[in-house]
Amino acid sequence: MKAILKFNLPKDISEFNDASNGTKWKIAMYDLNMWLRSETKYAPDSISEDTYNALKSCRDKLHEILNNDNLDLD
Fold first, then answer.
1. Cα(2)–Cα(15) distance, rounded to whole angstroms?
2. What is the residue extent of each domain of the chain?
3. Are 36 and 59 in contact (CB under 8 A)?
4. What is the value of pTM for the model shown?
5. Maximum C-alpha span of the chain
6. Is residue 29 packed enough to be buried (19+ CB in 10 Å), middle (13-18) or exposed (0-12)?
7. DSSP alpha helices (H): ranges in 13-48?
8. Contacts of 63 (CB under 8 A, 6+ apart)
9. Alpha carbon of 28 to those of 24, 25, 31, 45: distances in Å?
10. pLDDT tens-place string over residues 16-50
């Protein structure tokens, strides 16, 4: 099976770049998710509860957005 995406360049350059950089976006979101995980899982005792909750809230929101768009980081 093959899939071919066609773009009318240069008019559709933004859409072309989005499609071409999909893997980079996925890796960036994966890296952000892992950073947020690390910041909460290995948080120092000195971290404030507000900071911890903000980091956890950001990670939860990232997962919510990905799930709503049927995307995963696997």
1. 20
2. 49-74
3. yes
4. 0.85
5. 54
6. middle
7. 13-20, 22-41
8. 33
9. 6, 5, 5, 28
10. 999 999 999 999 999 999 999 999 999 999 999 99
